[in-house]
Structure formats: structure tokens, C-alpha cells
């Protein structure tokens, strides 16, 4: 009953909080950049997902995008957008909100602190913006490769398209590491002394894997590993969109 109650509260907050916060920020509309408003709304989405579940987080992301449109894109106080830059901002808010809400829901399920670090949010936002603005999925893959190297403090990282040779350790969707059929306690044992794969999917379809080369003695926290999984998912989405456009 406690979980049901929390979920019900989360759904209510998902509907009420975004318009309320957006309304409070309206007087500062002329001096506050839309990107700052969007980040504030993303934090609301994170809080809802951490309180409730994935569906509540998704609802909050949609609500945030709708009220961002209503209050902060011209013409104001109308559910229409006329400027391409505003359309892009609203879409990015929705994409980032959905991605971060899923990340927060994972963190809640694993009973760890929710991802609210500004650097992590900025990396997810930048990757979503790149995926939105480029038709070249390879550019997104290269960007994510660089992001993974920094987030996980790797010695190196490369992407293999559509291959599953060998049986290397694997970074899983929940941020854990498995090797063969066994769970590898990365927090206690450190990274395995070999490359670790992070598989990339788009719309359920396997497109390849990032091969992570750990730095000895450096163990990224669970939050960083969850961010890495989210970045890989964004690369998979870009590859899937490109495949759909080409009829593949």
C-alpha cells in the first residue's frame, strides 16, 4: 500500500508541478534563458520519477514539455509554436525528460541516490541535442564514445558495429557488471582486467557494442554507470532512426 500511495502522489505531482513551476518562472521570462527553464523542469521530472515510477516520470516529462510550450514559446499562452528554435527546445526538453526519468526510475529501483548531478544532466542533454540535429549516426556514436571515456574514466573506448564475438564482461542495463553467468562486484573488486562491453540497442534491435577499456584502480560509481547506459541507449536510438530512414 505504501508503494501504491507513493505512485499516486507521483502521478499527481507529475500533473501539477510542471505548470506550477512554469507559472512561477513566467515573470522572469524576459531575463531567464529557455535552457535554464528547461533544466529546472528536468529536475522536476527527475524528482517525480524518483518518487514514483517510469510511467509517472514519462507523464511528468510530457507535462513539462507541454507547459514549457504554453508559457515560454511564442505565441505565449497558446499551445502552438512558430519558431524552429522553440520547437527544438520543446522537443529536447521532452527527450531529455524522458531519458532522465527512466534513469531516475532505475536509480529508485536500485535504492541509490537519484541522478541530479549537473554534469551528468548536461552530458545527456548534449547527446540528445546532437542526435536531434544530425543525420549522421556515426557522429552520435563518436560523441558517445568520448562521453563514455570521460564519465567512466576509461583508458579507451571503441564501438563495434553488429558484432558479438567472444564473451567479455558486460555492463548491464541496471549498471551492474556480469562476466559469463556470474555477477561481478565492480564496487568491491574493481573493473575486470579486460575490456568490458556495453551493448547498444535501438527499438529493441541490436546495433553493436561499445568496448570499454577500464583504467586500473578507477571504479566509476553506480550513478556514472547508469549514465553510461543511458548515453549508449541514445546512440542506439540514433542508429535505429538512420536504419529506418534508409529502409534497413
From TrEMBL:
<keyword id="KW-0472">Membrane</keyword>
<keyword id="KW-0808">Transferase</keyword>
<dbReference type="Pfam" id="PF13493">
    <property type="entry name" value="DUF4118"/>
</dbReference>
<keyword id="KW-0547">Nucleotide-binding</keyword>
<feature type="transmembrane region" description="Helical">
    <location>
        <begin position="58"/>
        <end position="75"/>
    </location>
</feature>
<keyword id="KW-0067">ATP-binding</keyword>
<dbReference type="GO" id="GO:0016301">
    <property type="term" value="F:kinase activity"/>
</dbReference>
<feature type="domain" description="Sensor protein KdpD transmembrane">
    <location>
        <begin position="12"/>
        <end position="109"/>
    </location>
</feature>
<keyword id="KW-0812">Transmembrane</keyword>
<dbReference type="InterPro" id="IPR025201">
    <property type="entry name" value="KdpD_TM"/>
</dbReference>
<feature type="transmembrane region" description="Helical">
    <location>
        <begin position="87"/>
        <end position="105"/>
    </location>
</feature>
<keyword id="KW-0418">Kinase</keyword>
<dbReference type="InterPro" id="IPR038318">
    <property type="entry name" value="KdpD_sf"/>
</dbReference>
<keyword id="KW-1133">Transmembrane helix</keyword>
<keyword id="KW-0597">Phosphoprotein</keyword>
<protein>
    <submittedName>
        <fullName>K+-sensing histidine kinase KdpD</fullName>
    </submittedName>
</protein>
<feature type="transmembrane region" description="Helical">
    <location>
        <begin position="32"/>
        <end position="51"/>
    </location>
</feature>
<keyword id="KW-0902">Two-component regulatory system</keyword>
